[in-house]
């Protein structure tokens, strides 16, 4: 018998799709010229049996009586109506399964799911300045598409500058409440990012969302609340960690403000925690990453692959430096940071401080300063994590922290760009193990970027080495016994990048990580390009391969054949999502 559209999608995606008819929405009339799908096999992932026939799709299992009660008696013959009706019906738990789930949440054992779940980052402007969902029709169509492809969930930036914009303690969750309910309706999990930074001025920033108005007002009164470089340039992306514990924000400290925000989020969305919202990523710096704003792109200040600049010249950071120097018996070291470390766009060998032979970084003074600078960052992370783990204790969510993948000049002795960002990582010192150990103490996930990159794709004159960097981080997290998650740093839609992500996520870095994989991967980012037919076909195959895990024996080409069939079946619906996102 012929399979209906919902059955075909369910069998191809491995997800049961409800064949509902939505009467309140009109079918899309958008059209697009969809070219034939071209398969590009990977040379090093060949099928053992290239002539093997693809198994026929399996019918969706019969629904239980309870499910059948909620299912309409018939399905519309209209293809576009069927596409509109895509909805994922989660399998109903048996009493035994429900008990097992409760036992796990209460500390019992949970059977581990194989493979690496894939999440997709939502657009940065998913919630508007008016606290509503942006492009609601496009968002709804896109969430349908992602769920049908086997995506585990989505990542959403919850902007401090939108929610608490007008006044301290006045939280407006409007757009987020609606967006989270949409995710729940589509059966998608959510990684919620507590975004305490400004949007705008970094790679990929497509909109501008400043810090809350009342916070920027306090910065205008006291400019030293902002990170400052040696030339007096202020950075307004994120509050200086030098004032973390000082009541500089209308009687509250910055850390108290972050904690109050997270507590308000917990209280407002407690009904979704643990089921829909499964992870809280805590922002700790620019771009939400645990680092200093050492390489700001705004106004052309920094350009890749410059070394960046230290950010320790506001009065609060200098006060801490002075105290540390006095405690070390070297008060003369406490008046300022390095003054011979060059400018943002210099290279290591251009500067006395970072040069390989006789560089200041490898002197007693350099070791003192870099230890203090990196320790301040670690203490900042620990303070916020302590609040987060306490606030979300028992909520059934993971806590994660994002660390930047600074891979340029990695092949030099000093690793200058990492040092200016606050990672004391050199040829002679592992700067990521202390971060991993700090996260392990708080039970947090180490989330790392640049997973998609290969060394030879980057400028070799700048000694870029993203693969070696990812390997170092994988080894550090393994030693600290902290879960590692990944993200791609830049948008990529090609199989070459997907293959690299698959390889990196397997964590086979030392030949002994037999059962270890990344705990999750978050794909950057949902946009119209993702839904281009060729890109979508490759993405569907990538998600399927990630879900199967490194123990899967099927080759890429077999998965791609299924993906091609899937794209053909879902073409009208994916087309609708792509068109809606462009308007």
What does this structure look like?
The protein has 583 residues and is α/β, with parallel strands linked by helices. The protein has a domain at 113-311 and 379-582: TIM Barrel, CATH 3.20.20.80. The protein is built from 17 helices and 12 strands. It has an 8-stranded parallel barrel, surrounded by 5 helices. The longest helix has 28 residues, at 364-391. The protein is globular and about 70 Å long. The model is unreliable at 1-111 (pLDDT under 50).
Characteristic terms for this protein:
583 residues; alpha/beta; TIM Barrel; two-stranded antiparallel sheet; disordered N terminus; glycosidase; hydrolase; carbohydrate metabolism; beta-amylase activity
Number of distinct beta strands? 12
Q: How do the helices and strands follow one another from N- to C-terminus?
A: HEHHEHEHEHHEHEEHEHHEHHEHEHEHH
Apparent shape: globular
* Main sheet overview: 8 strands, parallel, barrel
The CATH superfamily of the domain at 113-311 and 379-582 turns out to be: Glycosidases
CATH third-tier fold name of the domain at 113-311 and 379-582: TIM Barrel
Mean pLDDT: 83
- The amount of beta strand, in percent, is 5-15%
- What is the number of helical segments per DSSP (H or I, 4+ residues)? 17
Give the CA-CA distance, first to last residue: 39 Å
Give the class from helix and strand content and strand pairing. alpha/beta
The CATH architecture of the domain at 113-311 and 379-582 can be named as Alpha-Beta Barrel
Q: Give the CATH level 1 class of the domain at 113-311 and 379-582.
A: Alpha Beta
Helix content: 25-40%
Low-confidence sequence ranges: 1-111
Q: Please state the CA-atom Rg, rounded to the nearest Å.
A: 25 Å
Main sheet: strand order: 3-4-5-8-9-10-11-12
């Amino acid at each position: 018998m012929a399979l209906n559209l919902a059955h075909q999608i369910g069998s191809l995606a491995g997800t049961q799709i409800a064949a509902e008819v939505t009467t309140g929405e009109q079918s899309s009339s958008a059209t697009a010229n969809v070219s034939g799908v071209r398969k590009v096999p990977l040379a090093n992932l060949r099928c053992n049996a290239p002539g093997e026939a693809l198994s026929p799709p399996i019918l969706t299992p019969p629904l239980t009586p309870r499910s059948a009660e909620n299912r309409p008696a018939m399905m519309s013959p209209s293809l576009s109506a069927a596409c509109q009706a895509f909805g994922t019906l989660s399998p109903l738990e048996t009493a035994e399964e429900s008990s097992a789930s409760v036992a796990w949440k209460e500390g019992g054992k949970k059977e581990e799911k194989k493979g690496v779940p894939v999440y997709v980052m939502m657009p940065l402007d998913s919630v508007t300045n008016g606290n509503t969902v942006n492009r609601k029709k496009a968002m709804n169509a896109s969430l349908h598409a992602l769920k049908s492809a086997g995506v585990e969930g989505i990542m959403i930036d919850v902007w401090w500058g939108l929610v608490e914009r007008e006044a301290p303690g006045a939280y407006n969750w409007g757009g987020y409440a609606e967006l989270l309910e949409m995710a729940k309706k589509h059966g998608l999990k959510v990684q919620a990012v507590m975004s305490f930074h400004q949007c705008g001025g970094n790679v990929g920033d497509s909109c501008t969302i400043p810090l809350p108005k009342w916070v920027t007002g306090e910065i205008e009164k006291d400019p030293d609340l902002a990170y400052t470089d040696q030339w007096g340039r202020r950075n307004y992306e994120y509050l200086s960690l030098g004032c973390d514990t000082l009541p500089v924000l209308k009687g509250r400290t910055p850390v108290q403000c972050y904690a109050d925000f997270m507590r308000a989020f917990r209280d407002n969305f407690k009904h979704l925690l643990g089921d829909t919202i499964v992870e809280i990523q805590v922002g700790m710096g620019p771009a939400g990453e645990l680092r200093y704003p050492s390489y700001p792109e705004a106004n052309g200040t920094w350009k890749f692959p410059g070394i960046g600049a230290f950010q320790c010249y506001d009065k609060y950071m200098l006060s801490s430096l002075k105290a540390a120097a006095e405690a070390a018996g070297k008060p003369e070291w406490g008046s300022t940071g390095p003054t011979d470390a060059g400018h943002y766009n210099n290279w290591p060998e251009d500067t006395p401080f970072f040069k390989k032979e006789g560089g200041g970084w490898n002197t007693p003074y350099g070791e003192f300063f870099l230890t203090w600078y990196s320790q301040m960052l670690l203490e900042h992370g620990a303070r916020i994590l302590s609040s987060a783990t306490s606030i979300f204790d028992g909520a059934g969510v993971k806590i994660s922290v994002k660390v930047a993948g600074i891979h340029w000049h990695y092949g030099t002795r000093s690793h200058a760009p990492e040092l200016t960002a606050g990672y004391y990582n050199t040829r002679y010192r592992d700067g990521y193990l202390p971060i991993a150990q700090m996260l392990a103490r708080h039970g947090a996930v180490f989330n790392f970027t640049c997973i998609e990159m290969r060394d030879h794709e980057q400028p070799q004159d700048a000694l870029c080495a993203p693969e070696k960097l990812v390997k170092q981080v994988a080894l550090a997290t393994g030693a600290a016994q902290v879960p590692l998650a990944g993200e791609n740093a830049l948008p990529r839609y090609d199989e070459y990048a997907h293959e690299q992500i698959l390889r990196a996520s397997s964590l086979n870095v030392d030949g002994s990580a037999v059962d270890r994989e990344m705990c999750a991967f978050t794909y950057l980012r949902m946009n119209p390009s993702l839904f281009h037919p060729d890109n979508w076909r490759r993405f569907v195959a990538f998600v399927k391969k990630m879900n199967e895990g490194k123990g899967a024996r099927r080759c890429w080409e077999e998965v791609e054949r299924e993906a091609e069939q899937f794209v053909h079946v879902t073409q009208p619906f994916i087309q609708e999502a792509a068109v809606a996102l462009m308007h």
